[in-house]
Amino acid sequence: MRKLYLLVVLTSFVVKSQVQQLDEVILNAQRLPSNVSPMSTSIVSDTLGLLLQQEIGTSLTAVPGLFVSSQQNYTQDTRISIRGFGTRAAFGIRGIKVLLDGIPITTADGQTQLDHVPLSQISNVQVLRGLSGGLYGNASGGVLFLKSSPITNQKNITATLGDFNTQSIVAHLSKAKEKNQFRITLEHKKQAGYRAWSAYENSALSLTKKFLLKNHNSLELNYFYFNSPFAQDPGGITREQTEQNRKQARSANVLYQAGEKVQHHMFSARWKRKSWSSYVFYTHRQLDAMLPFENSGQIDLSRDYAGAGMHHNGRKNNWLWQYGWDMAAQFDSRKRYKNLEGITGAQTLNQDERFQTIGGYGVLETQLNHWRIRGTLRSDWYRISIDDFYGDSSGNNTIAVVSPSLAIHRQLTAYWDGYLQYSTGYETPALNELSANPSGETGFNPSLKPQQSSSIELGLRHNIATFNSQLTLFYTETKNEIIPYETAQFPGQTFYANTGRVNRKGIEFESNWSFSSTGNIAVSFHYGDYKTVAKKDLPNVPRKQFSSSLKQHIGRTVLNAQLRYVGSRYANSDNTVEVPRFWTSDMYVQRSWGMTTWTLGITNIANTLYFDNIRINAFGRRYFEPAATRLLFLKCLVSF
Questions:
Q1: What is the pTM (predicted TM-score) of this model?
Q2: Segment 544-559, tens digit of pLDDT
Q3: Are residues 615 and 625 in contact, defined by beta-carbon separation less than 8 angstroms?
């Protein structure tokens, strides 16, 4: 086994663009159109389409400080944490701001589901690691900026078959004319799953129409539709059960038919005129979910989410600035019923929840010789309200927050630069977290408070034509950190509480070396210490992560291999249950013949037994969701 891993480290090859430093590239995620970045940044892409593309996390595992879990449970969705922010998510992403071409995917209260975004349409993901409250307001412990591919003249179909009955087909048609552009993308995916009761199926449609106007002005219209008729949730099991049979589902999850079905619509428009940019969007999401318990075990959630924003860029002499505003309104109609082993029972909850926000910000940068100084200031207003039609817990709350940040960037030599940044962040509980009331009553949990953070980081970068690297040191302090837990009274249901103060500190390193015109090596490493006020590690956050990848072009053939290490972490807040460390390795081979491109991929080559996800503080010690063993897939792209 060790010889195999050593071989992968020494001979594996990966795409240069998979993790890049952005020193001379304008980074959309940092808002300001500056050619310097006084913050820790990475860009990730799969331009050759080598990966399986069942979910977004596969592309992000090489980013230092970023941890991906729950990649194989399509009910819970991919969970992403950056420096420990987002780790509490029971499903989807929390505490991290996600945008698609500048339009928020993250709801006003800080929740993100990415299932409706067609991954085949994304050209790269820009990652800001660290607090970004001064730029984006609520739930900005990190930023993922998804950027769509430019619209060109294309017609192609991609079909994929793999183990565990993995199937997908993607059809893409786009046309680019002088004054308008059009794109349509259709995706259909399904899988039986590695574990029992883990199958899923979904379809997605994306439509884009872009009008190119005079003087580089433009108007872009988008529509996304996502339909998942079913996604099964196998649940967490105990360590003893994983040793007996890793593929088994939790019996209660099968008995109560745990899972979900989803329909999602999103409309958006973006307008650019000279130095002004603006957007509007509207999203409707219908979720019907079954949870593995009787009381309130069926959820009927109807969500309407709309927003708008505008910003202006300016430049004069050595000054550069951007100012803007954004607003959003989220309306959740939440109903709960008894789950009578998959049959709808009596109603137990009926409430309308609202989260409204408006914010304004300004970013100002100036240059003094080799120094760049950047300041950011943002002010946000939040109103959270509830109408309880079942009980007597209606009410509202208003919050006002100011988030400053200050950064200094210095060009040290022609090849070296460094920066020092102070930043702040603020995170309210999400509506579903507030509505999970451990008292068993209707209404919001009155004891759950927002969390506030401040951070300082120091970065050093080296950049030449064939090699670039970055070293980052960070320290973050958070008050009222929110963590999940379960109770004996409601096993299987996730509740939330404030744990007090959490101190985060760590070191991140990443580098890329283009040793030839056809080959590249990428390496990343992260070590972090995440301690609560009780001197315990924050659960489900590994202290160490390592990624090594290498890629080589040989004529029309591409060889690619990757190695990943995830250190040990804890499953509970008391740190009494340790999750073992693990190594995984993947290999990809791609070759073009005529109008076809074939990709053969093998993930988890060595059949490593590890855990795809950890259910933090689960009752009955049901922490573990075993990951799949080796998966072989074949992908064929046909261009017309």
A1: 0.94
A2: 999 999 999 999 999 9
A3: yes
Distances (CA, A) of 370 to 23, 286, 367, 469: 15, 52, 7, 20
Cα 349 to Cα 435: distance, rounded to the nearest angstrom: 10
251/237 Cα distance (integer angstroms):
9
CA distances to 33, 35, 120, 135, 367 from 364, rounded to whole Å, are 11, 14, 36, 12, 11
Q: 442 φ, ψ to 5°?
A: -80, 175
pLDDT digits (tens, 9 = 90+) for 33-45: 998 999 999 999 8
Confidence category of residue 91, pLDDT binned at 50, 70, 90: confident
Distance, in Å, from the CA atom of 448 to the CA atom of 429, rounded to the nearest integer, reads: 7
Contacts of 309-317 with CB under 8 Å at 24 or more apart are 309/278, 309/279, 310/276, 310/277, 310/278, 310/279, 311/31, 311/276, 311/277, 311/278, 312/275, 312/276, 312/277, 313/32, 313/33, 313/275, 313/277, 314/275
Long-range contacts of 464-468 (CB under 8 A, 24+ apart): 464/415, 465/514, 466/513, 466/514, 466/515, 467/511, 467/512, 467/513, 467/514, 468/20, 468/21, 468/23, 468/511, 468/512
Residue-range domains of the chain with CATH = 2-17+152-639 (2.40.170.20)
Tell me the mean pLDDT in the region 14-33.
60
What band does 310 get if pLDDT is binned at 50, 70 and 90? very high
Sequence-distant (≥ 6) Cβ neighbours of residue 490 within 8 angstroms: 293, 295, 296, 438, 440
Q: Are 55 and 228 in contact (CB under 8 A)?
A: no
